[in-house]
Design a protein that fits this description.
Largest sheet: 6 strands, antiparallel
CATH architecture of the largest domain: Sandwich
Helix content: under 10%
CATH superfamily of the largest domain: Immunoglobulins
CATH topology of the largest domain: Immunoglobulin-like
Distance between the termini: 115 Å
């Protein structure tokens, strides 16, 4: 309670207003009460009012509103007020103690006379009935004022109770009732909670329930849930619950809407006793005793592998009330704990003390079926049909290279494999036949019969050696490649590859695979006077093909006369002082390139450029007042030179 008040006193300021209970149409009265961090301000307060829609504030007091005198009759009627007035007047330093200061605040909520004594209460009678007003309080600090938060607008009217508390939620939690509501600090500081049974109303709290926000585990502040909890209700009786707020003038708000519920039966039946369990292999028999109650319903059976749980219900439906024995067949052996739960017709449960049962397994798993092996590069992948035994631990894998010698099988895994897949990695060059079988084992280490064995061999992934090209010969038919035959036992033959570059790419030039005894091949598609690079690739029965690492170079030289003319054209630009030469492209593979010749006369021309083989134009920078003679010459791989005409120009 006091924590909530502390939050109000140290939080934002409040100015509360209401129409006085004595207000009438001819004599309207608005009561104002305010709270701030310093309700005992010795310099006092100023109170201002304005009508809604008017900007100017009117000061209501001519002198500061300060602490007054408490009538002796009021002090005599209320010991708490009498004590607090003595503290304020005689030892105000004691109010530095939070407990005492918060009790003073709480009492000002309940008593308007105490608030008036402290100078934080005012009756405004100088108002017009039906007009709407707003109030402001100034805390006097020397020559300055600190304004509190403005009040809500209020229309001068006859007294009416405050609006009912909303958002009422009521629910039962075992033997208690929990109540929540929508908290509104501007309208009420506390609430009263009532229950109604058969027309009789009972207030469930002695003092108004006051809430404060507190942080949760994430640091977020919120109100408690539930906001109010109480006990003492009769089972199977109907109750209605109501909430009313208590405002800051000590008056109750209107009652909330009623929430009605039937208080459920929460008393469980007597606890089952003398629970015993006995195991015969995987078959378990339970027996127990039970004292019956008038609303007794039946039993549930629970099982766990630990005495502390968690327990799992094993029966599909509630056992009848006259049953005292239960039998079940376990799927997985081991130590178990059983409990019997008794239920009444309101489904209130109560469990017995646990009973221990040790169920031993003597039954092996079934023989594993459908073992298969798929061979891949450097590994075997074994798969089989998964066993269905619930206590299956896994599988042992065995391997040998001789299926007829049982003792030669080697265990491949130290721990049982708990899936139906096993992968074994082997060197890629291994070519033996391997035989495998598997054995299933359960959690009691009972072993199944051996599976049928499966066999496989690793695929051959090792290519043949690259054939060695001994020499290159030439004939009128083309280029002859000679190589040394490979000696691999699984050799299938050869392919011949050719490229324009030693770095490739290489293209196969034979159509059919050459026989294993082949050692020579004639390339009849080779063009004369062109550079080639050759490689022989061997192929084995698995389709592996040797790499190309050491290709051999070859060039088939043959005399070849180019008969096409070489035509040169010349354009002179005097302004730029340039001569532009162009010549035709001779479409012949034997052309190595072109060279431009220039001289001062037709008889004296010398090379102007090096070999040009990537363009057919040339621009020459020249000088004025000189004669120039140009000629272009084409050179072939066989040594032939083709000459253009000599052209003359001058600037």
């Amino acid at each position: 309670m006091f924590m909530a008040l502390q939050a109000v006193s140290q939080g934002p300021s409040y100015v509360f207003v209401r129409n006085a209970p004595s207000a009438s149409q001819t004599q309207p009265v608005v009561q104002v009460k305010w709270f701030s961090n310093d309700i005992l301000n010795p310099e006092g307060f100023n109170l201002y009012r304005r009508e809604v829609g008017v900007s100017n504030w009117v000061k209501l007091n001519t002198t500061p509103i300060t602490r007054g005198v408490m009538p002796a009759g009021v002090r005599a009627q209320d010991e708490e007020i009498d004590f607090l007035v003595d503290v304020v007047t005689k030892s105000p330093e004691d109010l530095k103690e939070d407990f005492l200061y918060l009790n003073l605040l709480l009492k000002t909520f309940e008593s308007n006379q105490l608030a008036n004594f402290l100078g934080i209460f005012y009756n405004d009678t100088q108002i017009n009935f039906g007009a709407t007003y707003q109030y402001r309080v100034g805390v006097i600090k020397g020559a300055n004022e600190i304004y509190l938060t403005n009040s809500k607008p209020i229309q001068a009217d006859v007294y009416q109770k405050g609006n009912a508390v909303s958002g009422i939620e009521v629910y039962q939690d075992r033997k208690s009732i929990s109540v929540n509501w929508e908290q509104d600090e501007q309208s009420f500081y506390g609430v009263n909670v009532y229950s109604v049974k058969s027309g009789d109303t009972t207030q469930l709290n002695n003092e108004p329930v006051i809430l404060t926000k507190a942080p949760d585990s994430t640091g977020v502040y919120g109100y408690p849930d539930p906001m109010f909890m109480t006990t003492g209700f009769e089972e199977l009786e109907t109750y209605s619950f109501l909430v009313e707020g208590v405002d800051y003038f000590g008056e109750e708000t209107r009652l909330s809407k009623a929430v009605t519920l039937i208080f459920d039966d929460t008393t469980p039946p007597p606890v089952p006793g003398n629970l015993k369990g006995k195991a015969d292999s995987l078959r378990v028999r339970l027996t127990w005793d039970q004292e019956l109650a008038p609303d007794f319903k039946g039993f549930n059976i629970y099982r766990s592998i630990k005495s502390t749980g968690p327990y799992v219900k094993v029966n599909a439906s509630v056992l009848d009330a006259d049953i005292r024995e239960y039998n079940e067949k376990l799927e997985i052996p081991g130590p178990y704990y059983y409990a019997v739960e008794a239920l009444d017709h309101s489904n209130n449960p109560i469990r017995s003390a646990p009973a221990f049962v040790d169920a031993q397994d003597v039954f092996p798993p079934a023989q594993p079926k459908r073992l298969t092996i798929v061979s891949d590069t450097g590994r075997f992948v074994l798969k089989w049909e998964m066993n269905t035994e619930p206590d299956l631990l896994g599988y042992y894998i065995y391997r040998t290279v001789d299926a007829d010698l049982k003792g030669n099988y080697v265990l491949m895994n130290g721990d049982p494999v708990d899936t139906n897949v096993f992968v074994q990695v082997l060197p890629k060059v291994v070519k033996n036949d391997f035989y495998y079988y598997i054995v299933a084992v359960d959690t009691s280490f009972n072993r199944s019969p051996d599976s049928d064995f499966a066999t496989a061999v690793l695929p051959d992934v090792t290519p043949p050696e690259e054939p060695f090209i001994e020499r290159i010969d030439y004939s009128d038919e083309g280029i002859i490649i000679n190589w040394t035959r490979n000696v691999e036992s699984d050799l299938m033959g050869y392919h011949v590859f050719r490229s324009d570059s030693a770095k490739g790419p290489f293209s196969q030039i034979n159509i059919e695979l050459l026989a294993t005894f082949s050692f020579r091949y004639t390339d009849r598609s080779a063009e004369p006077n062109k550079q080639y690079h050759y490689a022989i690739r061997a192929v084995d029965r698995a389709g592996n093909i040797s790499k190309i690492e050491k290709p051999a170079a070859a060039k088939w030289y043959r005399e070849h006369e180019v008969k096409e003319d070489l035509v040169l054209t010349l354009k002179t630009k005097k302004r730029n002082r340039t001569n532009r030469l162009e010549w035709n492209f001779i479409d012949d593979n034997s052309i190595k390139g072109y060279i431009i010749f220039r001289g001062p006369s037709e008889r004296v021309v010398k090379p102007l450029t090096g070999v040009i083989n990537d363009k057919f134009t040339f621009v020459d920078k020249v000088e004025k007042n000189k004669d120039y003679y140009y000629q272009v010459r084409a050179y072939t791989t066989s040594g032939q030179v083709i000459y253009s005409e000599i052209l003359e120009t001058s600037l």
